[in-house]
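Action item from last meeting closed. Structure (601 res):
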């Protein structure tokens, strides 16, 4: 049960409600037993037309207690009145049983919903706070599967059966206690059979966890293929690879079908098998208990009939419990997959005692910084200072480490060795939120959300005024195309901004950076998605935005960084050249070769 500790751990803050649930459940079971227990005096009255004191044995303590109660409260000489009284007790008992049953549902269902809600929130929050490097190794479809399908599986297979794991064992225990009270010899014989039944049912459900895990993996892979298909439809159609994608998806779909069928075969076997085994035990009781009645060994016919009714009251909980056990085994695979995410160490932890930095006053400094990922060196002993108000450009071949170096400043990654400092203090000593509040980032690929234009622009500043949004749009050369939209700034741009052109999407991200008005800018080739006309206008806007700000620019088009205060040339994670544009041209090194190549092109 250790693997379920996180799921049930959410109940700790609701101890009072859990106690009330147990209490109402116990009362419901107790009144159910009372209603069935009244069958014994009822049968005596019907069979013998006499109360228990006249016919039947008196050596059964439960029957004696019921008889005493009837004798003290009813005129037992009036059989019709006695019959009515017994029926009234049964009616009241059944009413109270169902009343407390409803109370238990009323308490438990919100608790079950709360468990699932908290689990889903914790999983989403964990994904939000995991470092970017984590997602390079994970398929998007697999993560979506864990946050949707696996959580739903936990809700159905684990949380959904929570009631059975409380009510059914209590029902079995209380009924067995009464059965033992009525006939210890017969009940002891039944108890011998239970371990055998449990062993058989356990063998049936043993493979469910493994098969459920296989199904979850296949489902995640199919989601990944679907995501790639939706994102790459242009390429798929252009290269006529529809059939290739069909075969790939069909193969995964067939494997998923096979895994799900295996799960169904195992799960569906548990319930009928448990019922059959229960009937075998019931038949054994008829044979063994019948002998006790016929031989008059401390068990009379009416008590035996009540005994059978109480035992039958156990069969359904046993059947349900076995089904719940199978479901729990199936759901444990989903819990394991969720736990893998929740237990993933966050290599970029926020400092709970971190200082809050309100302004950037001096410089950003990289001191002997190295960074490696999975044993591969990405950055090697980088020493670099970015003075306040200066623009530093990072250039180099693909994979040289430009983006990684820039990502260290907002702590998307943490250094493997060395230090990154802002105003002379290690950035790990600041709170994450305060560091990132000083920065705006414009990425090479425009990243927008399925919302209005206005909400996307003010994403980094929720309280931005309409004037600020409009001014930012004008500077980013986005105002003209925005007002031409039917709903202007309230136009919904669709999933990832698909209703806009590439240039329009990039100009919105630039407007978003402008609204935040930060002291530090990180620009990853921010103009690469723009047409020639827009590029010039937006580049002018960026140049204006960069004035009096500290900027780190990742450049592929070297023409955009000619006026940078310092250009850093990276190769294989090391700084191989540095200086201004003019100084680097004079060095006649790697940077000049890059410039010459672009001028030729």
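Sequence:
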């Amino acid at each position: 049960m250790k693997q379920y500790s996180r799921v049930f751990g959410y109940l700790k803050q609701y101890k009072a409600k859990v106690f009330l649930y147990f209490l109402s459940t116990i009362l419901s079971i107790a009144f159910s037993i009372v209603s069935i227990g009244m069958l014994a005096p009822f049968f005596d009255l019907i069979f013998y037309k006499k109360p228990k004191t006249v016919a039947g044995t008196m050596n059964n303590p439960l029957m004696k207690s019921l008889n005493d109660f009837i004798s003290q409260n009813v005129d037992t000489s009036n059989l019709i009145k006695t019959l009515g009284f017994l029926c009234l007790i049964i009616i009241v008992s059944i009413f109270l049983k169902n009343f407390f049953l409803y109370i238990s549902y009323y308490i438990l269902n919100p608790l079950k919903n709360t468990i699932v809600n908290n689990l889903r929130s914790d999983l989403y929050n964990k994904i939000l706070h995991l470092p970017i490097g984590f997602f390079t190794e994970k398929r998007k479809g697999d993560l979506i599967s864990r946050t949707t399908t696996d959580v739903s599986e936990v809700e159905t297979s684990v949380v959904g059966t929570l009631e059975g794991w409380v009510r059914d064992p209590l029902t079995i225990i209380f009924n067995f206690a009464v059965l033992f009270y009525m006939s210890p010899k017969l009940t002891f014989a039944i108890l011998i059979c239970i371990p055998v039944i449990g062993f058989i049912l356990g063998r049936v459900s043993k493979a469910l966890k493994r098969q459920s895990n296989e199904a979850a993996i296949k489902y995640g892979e199919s989601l990944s293929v679907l995501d790639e298909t939706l994102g790459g439809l242009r390429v798929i159609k252009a290269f006529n690879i529809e059939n290739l994608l069909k075969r790939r998806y069909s193969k995964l779909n067939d494997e998923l079908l096979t895994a799900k069928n295996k799960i169904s075969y195992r799960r569906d076997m548990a319930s009928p098998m448990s019922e059959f085994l229960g009937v075998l035990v019931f038949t054994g009781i008829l044979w063994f208990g019948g002998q006790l009645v016929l031989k008059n060994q401390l068990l009379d016919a009416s008590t035996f009939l009540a005994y059978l009714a109480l035992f039958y009251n156990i069969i359904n909980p046993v059947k349900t419990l076995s089904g719940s056990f199978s479901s729990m085994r199936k759901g444990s695979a989903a819990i394991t997959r969720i736990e893998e995410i929740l237990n993933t160490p966050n290599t970029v932890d926020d400092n709970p005692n971190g200082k809050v930095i309100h302004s950037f006053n001096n410089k950003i400094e990289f001191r002997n910084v190295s960074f490696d990922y999975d044993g591969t060196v990405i950055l090697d002993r980088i020493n670099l200072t970015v003075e306040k108000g200066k623009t530093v450009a990072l250039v180099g071949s693909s994979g040289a480490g430009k983006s990684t170096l820039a990502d260290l400043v907002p702590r998307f990654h943490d250094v493997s060795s060395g230090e990154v400092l802002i105003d002379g203090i290690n950035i790990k000593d600041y709170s994450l939120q305060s560091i990132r509040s000083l920065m705006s980032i414009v990425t090479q690929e425009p990243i927008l959300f399925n919302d209005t234009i206005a909400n996307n622009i003010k994403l980094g500043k929720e309280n931005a005024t309409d004037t600020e949004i409009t001014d930012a749009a004008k500077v980013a050369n986005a105002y003209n195309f925005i007002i031409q939209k039917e709903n202007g700034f309230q136009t919904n741009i669709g999933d990832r901004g698909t209703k806009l052109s590439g240039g329009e999407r990039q100009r919105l991200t630039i407007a978003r950076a402008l609204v935040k008005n930060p002291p530090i800018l990180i620009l990853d080739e921010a103009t690469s998605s723009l047409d020639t006309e827009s590029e010039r206008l937006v580049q002018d806007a960026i140049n204006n935005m960069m004035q009096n700000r500290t900027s780190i620019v990742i450049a592929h088009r070297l023409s955009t960084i000619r006026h940078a205060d310092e250009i850093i040339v990276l190769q294989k994670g090391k700084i191989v050249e540095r200086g201004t544009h003019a100084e680097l041209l004079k060095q006649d090194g790697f940077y000049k070769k890059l410039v010459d190549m672009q001028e030729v092109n």
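Note appended to the action item: The beta strands are 363-373, 376-387, 391-396, 417-422, 425-426, 439-442, 520-524, 550-554, 566-571, 574-579.
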